[in-house]
Task: structure prediction
Amino acid sequence: MNPDRIDPSAWLPQSGDMVLLDAVTRWDATHIVCRTISHRRVDHPLASDGRLPVWAGIEYAGQAMAIHRALCRAASTRPAAGFLGGLRDVACAVERLDDIAGELTVTATSLFADGAGSIYRFAVCAGGGEVPLISGRATVVQPGMR
Result:
């Protein structure tokens, strides 16, 4: 599937303002790269007092993981919600995302996947940058999937 034709909202259980990713740049069986400028929105649903904490990057990464999982399964309907089962090795280089100029690049790499869940390494970077603003590993549980 051509990344230019992938609408993130069609592959996520979230809807409306909670769809945080703007586009899928590329993906394959183990990796996805997405981009967005939604962190700059003054009405961001995860912001508090006009500030978007760096921890919101975990939701950005979670959405990239959900899109990747759905694309790999070739799901034809909106996927069921997955649940964050755990985080490991999370590192933050900034306190907030709303003051980052330009796009965010969100990457997720599948380390393990089966019908019940997956483990991903993730990073959220400014633009195409190499230094993550937030990174780590996430375990996602997908109840009812096999």
The longest helix spans residues 57-73. The radius of gyration is 14 Å.
